[in-house]
Amino acid sequence: MFKAILYKEWLKIRWVVLGSILAVLGFLVYIGLNVRQYFEMNDPINVWIFFVQQKVLYYSILKYIPVFIAIILAVVQFVPEMVKKRYRLTFHLPFSETKSLFIMSFIGMGHILLVSVILLLGLTIIGSIYFPVELTASSLVSVLPWLLAGFASYLTTSAVVLDPSWKYRVLFVLFLTPFIQSLFLEQGYYEYKYSIVFFFLISLLFGIIILFPGYRLRKGSVK
Amino acid sequence: MENVIECVNLTHSYGNKLIYKDLNFSVQKGKIFGILGKNGMGKTTTINILMGFLRPTGGNCYVLGEESHNLAPKTRAKIGLLFEGHVCYEFMTVAQIEKFYSQFFPNWRKDLYFGLIDRLGVTYDHKISNMSCGQRSQVALGLIMAQDPELMILDDYSMGLDAGYRMLFIDYLIDYVRENNKTVFMTSHIIQDLEQIIDDAIIMGRQKIILQMPIKEFLGSFHQYHFSVDGRLPDLDFDDTVANWESLKNHYTVYSFKSEKDVKNYMSNKSVSIQDFHETSMNLEHAFIGLTGKY
Question: Do A3 and B73 touch (CB under 8 A)?
């Protein structure tokens, strides 16, 4: 049954999965070419001043990419369930509805994890070509909040799409978006070095959000 | 005989708006049961409660022995649901949707599904969203039949179907249900079609059940009498004799469960001269309108 749910989700999200991987690879290639151009057009000292002392993150173009992909993914995955109240088909399957919801969201988060790994690997490769290890390591730490924002945005969007009540949809947005915004406050490298664990722990709580709209859908919000 | 569905003192309201109160009905195993009622009488509410997507505000509703809003997954496997509008995963193709559902049901009857699909003349890679409403209805029916459920709950199967597809749907349904001794709980806004399908029915009125009986018994015992009067008859009360009545100028129609003789006697007691008293036969749709009224 797990395989069946995986199959259904794959049919819904396959183009987003493919498109987002290609897009992320494209951005990484762009960043790599951009950094090479800086080194070729400028003295190394100026490059250092630009990227390190002026705190211009050479990968800043990636900042909102995980969030963007996460929102599209959640919409593509859950809007078809809500149109014509198709969630009733899923909830009537001889399978625990809680497990179904968790599997569906794990599949979505699995893709965001894949995108995150590709981004981290790409930045590691680019960093190892052009920068010292310290700067590469700091770039990976600096990008973690953006990736975390991707997971949180995915779960928030899923909950907003799935909830049958506009009141709860608004509440989800009001309470959860400030947390996501707080993951974009950095001004340079390493700024979330100590707080990222704290943000990660809060993000884990987002994992159960999807159960609330799921419960309301199952137990009597149909009119 | 074993009851597959049993609702006891079923009550539901949306906020302060009471839909119905203390409904009691049961559906026996192997029967095709229809729920008839005009718009807004609570048919969809009842269907949603039986499907487990709505928790009633009062009373209990048992489906295959379990509370309908708390069905175990293995019980859900024994219930086939057809949603209004033949809702299905339209982003899938004919073959993909079969592959998906077949993994959930141990007694999956692939032959029934593809037998029905083959009749449509569509290829297996045909996307369901590109199908007509009629074709989609066959896909939805095929999936339920392949599931091999004990109970089928069909919510307005006729919605959006032309006469041909309605007939096709009914033909397949009757054949499958009779051959496999299935229980069906169904509703449709085309009451005429239900006459040839259903064994028992409940007719819902405002906040209550007006009638529950086998459909043949209803059609055999419910009469439509016409007559004319000189002048004007005072408004008739609804009572044991007059289930409903209507008039156009001095022509009257009375609907009643009583015999012609009883109704004639009843009218003669109204001290009016009655002419041309006669009975006309009714089909289910006429009888339904006769009982519930046109408005």
Answer: no
Long-range contacts made by residues A52-61, C-beta under 8 angstroms, separation at least 24? Answer: A52/A135, A52/A189, A55/A187, A55/A188, A55/A189, A57/A139, A57/A142, A57/A188, A57/A189, A58/A31, A58/A34, A58/A139, A59/A31, A59/A123, A59/A126, A59/A139, A59/A143, A61/A27, A61/A30, A61/A31
SS3 B160: coil
Q: Would an 8 Å CB–CB cutoff place A92 in contact with chain B?
A: yes
Q: Could you tell me which residues come within 8 angstroms of residue B295 by beta carbon, excluding any fewer than 6 positions away? A: none
Superfamily designation of domain B3-208: P-loop containing nucleotide triphosphate hydrolases (3.40.50.300)
- Does ipTM exceed 0.85? no
* B97 interfaces chain A, CB cutoff of 8 Å: no
Instruction: Compute the average pLDDT of residues B262-273.
Output: 78
Cβ of residue A4 closer than 8 Å to a chain B Cβ:
yes
Which element (helix H / strand E) includes B222? none
What fold is seen in the domain B222-292?
Alpha-Beta Plaits (3.30.70)
Give the model confidence (pLDDT) of B229-241 as tens digits.
877 767 777 777 7
